[in-house]
Every structure is written in structure tokens, then in C-alpha cells.
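Appendix B, Record 12. Input sequence as logged:
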Amino acid sequence: MADLRYAVRQLLRSPGFSLVAIATLALCIGANTAIFSVINAILLKPYPWPESGRLVYANNSYPALGLVDAGSSIPDYVDRHEGVSSFADSALYSYRSLNTGGDGRAERLSALAATPSLFTTLESAAALGRTFNAGDARVDAPATVVLSDSFWRTRFGADPAVLGRVIRLDDRPVTVIGVMPAGFYFPNLETQVWIPYGFTPAQTADTQRGHESSKMIARLKPGASLAAAQRELDLIQARNAARLPQLAEFWRTSGFTGRVTGFLEENVDNIRGMLLLVQAGVAAALLIGCANVAGLLLARAVGRQKELAIRTALGATRGRLVRLLMIEGGVLFLVGGGGGLVVAAWSLAALKGLGLAHLPRGFDVRLDPTVFAFTFGCALATGLLFGGLPAWAASRSGPGAALKESGGRGSAGRRTQRLRSALVVTEIALAVMLLSTAGLLIKSFSRLQRVDPGFRPGGVVAGEVALPASRYDSPAKIAAFHDAVLARLAAVPGVAAAGSTSFLPFTDRYNSGNYTSPDIKLPPDAPEPHALIRNADPGYLRTLGLTLLQGRWIADADVASARPVVVVDRLLVDRYWKGEDAIGKRILHDHTLWTIVGVVGTVKSGSLDERGKESLYFPAAQSPQADFMFVLRTTGSPAGLIPALRAALAAVDPVQPLFNVSSMEEKMADAAEPRRAPVVLLSVFGGMAIVLAMLGVYGVLAYAVTQRTTEFGIRMALGSSPREIAGLVLRSGIWLVALGTAAGLAGFVLVSRLVASLLFNTAALDPVTLAGAPLLLALVALAATLLPALRATRIQPMVALRGD
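Logged structural output:
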């Protein structure tokens, strides 16, 4: 305790030094803490279900068609639920969109239809009432529902008497049988209610294989492995291929297989690399900051050499001196860690502005005990390493050598200078690696943003509707609702065009399927063609701003009684009829032969960096669906049309809610967040690295000038010019920068393969970026040498010699 009190007093005597060191550490440790809290919530923290590490997906995959995860059909689920001994339990679920408005409030609910085994698979019970049983899933059973805790509280005021209450979902009476505990969610936080998922005999028949609108989750038995479960899925598929020769050829050419993947791994696979890269970048900034603080501690220790020499002469051992200095450094690092928690709290608020909520489990990012432990460990580890180095270096010399060093000469002074120089070289190397990575990501993101999405997103707003089958039970009723809403929208001032579609680009909804054609000749062993399937009314393609390349748009005359027609995109034409006229060729899909009447440009569907998938656009009147999206184009602000869209919907059906309403530019920005956020963060950390590296270079050269004051005085007394003295200092700085830059480029080359996987249309060893980033850092670092060099030229020989 005596040493601790002494350390605090010493630091309070140098408030400037202490504040600079603590601020540097707080900034760097806080940034690390903030990013670690994101990684902890997304990659490390278990899900809110017992032993969630044993949960896996068991879905279908068609590698030859570009469908790595195609979901699961009902008969595939039945096979695996009953036939995979590695599974302790399994469930099938499908997303639903339900409307509730019986009390006059139109509201859309995010729902999940799930087999009763979902809750036993998750090993989760209801907090009130019960979850589903097998009887609830019978097709003829009374409709039941389980509520989420948040929906129960917001909609029913946490009334425990909700059990047994009948509510209306999609205009059907449904009985509430349970409420899940607070904190429970599946598969995401947006899910508000769960309804039973039951199957008819027809749905479990082999004819339903390939209808993969659901997903399968399973729990591995204790001791079972992913590999063992995968082998069992492969055996089931082999038996099915032998039993169903009519499907075996398609399965073979498409590479069809059941695929078992870890639940967590599957959810975070597309963002894991970016998150780890950002954590590596902020860790580099931390090391740079710690190296700077270590340099400050070294300079401080040099100033106390006389004190340390006296302590040694009075009997203090080397271990005693090291402990004394390390306690001072430890206090700095621990206080800096405490400040880092404050910085982390501020940083998390800023991160939310970068689209944190769009990441898997982004809602769960917070400062929790695990994050506090990380911050303490980070402060402790860096304190021991970067606080221990100065303490060890300062304690190496005996009393005589220490007294000499206090006068400005001695081998100990040279050792201290070499250690500080090594720390600065390390800072520069890490900064070069960080800046090079940030530069490549900026270039990659810039190129990505210039990719043509295939449509004109400016001025477009869209909103989704889901018509309940109980009230819209025929194509005629769906068409009447659609036409009435569009007629009202067309009369709204500022609406330049309007239309609707079943699936809109840059949303999390899509539909795809196989098709054939009597006009396509496939090579041997080639898989059947596969495309994105969209329904569109006559106004949609023009409203979204697609380019008509050949033929015509979908027209008002393309009604149910007319000849079935389809519009295809250029990617499909180039793949199968390149150089030919595609108009009049035929597509066989869903047992119907459709004639191609138009060709449009290819549209990016999920992200700007996707390879592309051919698309088929069927007339909505010839293939009606109850779920669709209204799309409007305006010459003004898209947000100004949202009230008009809601009003038109309410005028036609007051209890029909509109949801997922936003502009196309907003939808595209949301899709780009996983790439934008790392670019912004690494750019910020790169800026921090430049500043810290500049301070490091300045500090080591200023210290060197102080140490060489006598030498410079003698040189000037013997005739050296101020320019020559400045040259000595500048050359020292140039060597530091050159060594650090070379080491940083070599280090970046070693990790370039990891960075390459995260880039779009940009080489990881792009020469312009790899030259520009080090050059920028070198110029800034060399600028930091000017002040020490100028200071060296102003040394007066007589004053320097008299001081010695």
C-alpha cells in the first residue's frame, strides 16, 4: 500500500504527463472494449437457450445452382426428424406475416409457424401457460398462439389473464395458450408470436420435395458431432435417390445434399471476417497507444535516474525498483482502463449509427460482465507488458552508471534510446498495416458503390402488404384490392409511376425455382436452369427503373385468360441464347409454358457484390399472390409519399396494415452496412494511428536531442553548421520511419490473404494503395521530426558545455 500511495503522489506531481498517458490509454482501450462488446454479442455469447452450442441447421443445398442454403421441404424434414439418430430433437419452422386489427388498430405481426418440437428442441418452456403439443398441430385443431414477452406487455399490458383469450390473427379467432419468458426469442428479436405448424398427408408426399419454404433446426445428442449427423443425412439422401429415380438425375446434376451446419456459425458466417478484421485493427491502435505510453514512461524514468541511483545506493534491490516503477505504470493503465469503459459507452452509441442493429444479435451489444472482464484484462496485460519494459530498462544500471546517465551520457542512456526507437518502429509498422488495410477497404467500398444495381433507386419508396386468406380467398378479391389501391395512388400529386411486385431487390425476401425450356439445349450433366421468381404488375418494371432491352413490358392485357407470358433478364438470355433473339422462346415453370415477350437488364437482388442470378418476371394477374409490395416513384422526396401510401391502403381496407415502408436508397444502405461500418471504423483507427505514430517519432527524437545536447554543442563549437546538426536529427527520424514502413509492408503482405477475402474488385496487394498509405504516414512522421531538428540547431555550444 505504501508503494501504491507513493505511485499516486508521483503521478499527481506530473499532471500533464499523467493526463496525456491516461487519455491515450482510455481512447485505445475504450475502442477495443467497444469492438469487443460487438464481437462478444455476435460471435461469443451463447444464445438464450440451454446448451445452444449443440443446435444445428439441417437444410438442403444445391451447390451447382448457387444455392448453398435452400431451406428444407416438409418431406425432407420428416425423413431427418425420424431417421437421424444424432439428433436429440428437431423442428421445422417457417416465417409468417399475420395481421391483427380486430380492435380497430391495424398492425402487422412478425410470426413463426413452428412444429411443436421447436420448444423442446430449444429446451425452453413458457413463462405463462404452455407451448404447443402434437394436438395443436393437427390441421383440424382449434387455432392457438404463443406470445412473446414483449408483445404480451405492449399489447396486453402484461395481463396474466391473457391465457385463454381469443384474439384475431388474419381475421381468424386464435386462442392464446402461452407467453414465453422475458429474454427468450427465436429465431430473432422481431418475432412476436408463434403458431403451430402442422402437415397434411399431401404435404409430406415425395411430390413436395423441392418446395423448400421452411428451415430445420436440430439439437445434437450429447457426444454427437456435426460429422456424424452429416453422414446420416448423406445416407438418407442416398436411399431417397435409389427410391426416387425421377428426382435422382436432378439431384445429381445440381449437387443436391442435406447440409448440417452449426447454428451460430451459419448466422455469422458472412460477417465474421469483417468483425475480426476490425478487432485486429483496433488492437493495432491499442498497441500503438501503449507503445507511446511506454515511451513516455521511459522518458520519465530517465529523469528519475538520480533518485533511482540513490535508492540503489541505500540498499534497494533491482526487484524493489522494478516493483516501484511497475506500480506507477499499473496505476496509469488501470485508470486508463476505467476511462476506457466511459469511452466504450460513448463509442457504442456511435456504433448504433453505423447500423449495429442490422447485424445478427446487434440488439444485444452492451457492456456486460464479460466485457468488463475483457477491459480489466486488457488494461492489466498491457500494463504488465508496456509498463514492465520501462521499469526493467530503468533498473538495469547500477548507481554509478545511473548517475552518469543523469548527466546525459552512458551506456544505459543508449540502451534506453534503442528501446524507445524500437517501440517507435513498432508503432510505425502497425500504423502502416492499419492504414494499408483501411485504404484497401475504402477503395473496395468506393468501387462497390459505383456498381450499377440494374435499376434507378432514387425517388422510389416501397411498402409491403400481406392479405389474409380468410378475407382475400380468391384471385379476384386480391386483384380488386390491388387495383383499388393503385387507382388511388395514381391520383396522388407527385406520384410519377406506381406498381407492385412479389419480391423487391435489397430486402430479405426472395423466391427462386427451377425451370426448363424446349428451346434450351443443356450440355451433358448440366443442372436444370434456376432463377429468381418475381411476379410484377404492368407498372412495376418501369416504376423501379429497369431497362427494357428487347420486346415489351408486362401489359394490362396480360390477364389470367390471356396467353401466359414472361419477361426475362439479360443474364438468362446471355447464358442460354447469346446472340439469338429471345422473344418468342418458351419457359416451362410450374407446369405452365410461358412465352418470352420482353428482356430487361439484370438487377442486383441482395447486394451490389453478388455474382448475379437470372430472373423471371411473371404477370401478377396470371400468377396472383396475396403478399406483395407497392412501389412508387416520385420526382420529390420519397418520404413524402409514405402518408399517401398509408392513406390509400386505409381507404380500401382500414384493417390492412402496411409494413417495411422505406425508400429504395434506404434499403440499399441497410444492405451495405456490413461493408460500410468496417470502412468507417478502420479509417478512424487509421487516423488515430497517424497521430500516435507522429507523437511517438517526435518523442523519441526530442529525447535524443536532449541526450545529445553536449555532443551537438561540441560539434557546433568545432564548426558544424546548424544545417548539419539538423541533418543528423532528420537522418535519425528517416531511419526510424524507413524501418517501420518496411516492417509494416512486410507484415501486411503476410496477412494480405485474409484481407483479400473481404475486398470487392480490388487486389490485396494493390500497388497504389500500398504506396499511398505508407507515403502518407511517412510524410506525417517526418513532419514530426522537424521540431526536434529545429530545436537541435538552436543549441548554444557554451550553454551545452557548461551544463555538462
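Residues 468-655 form one domain.
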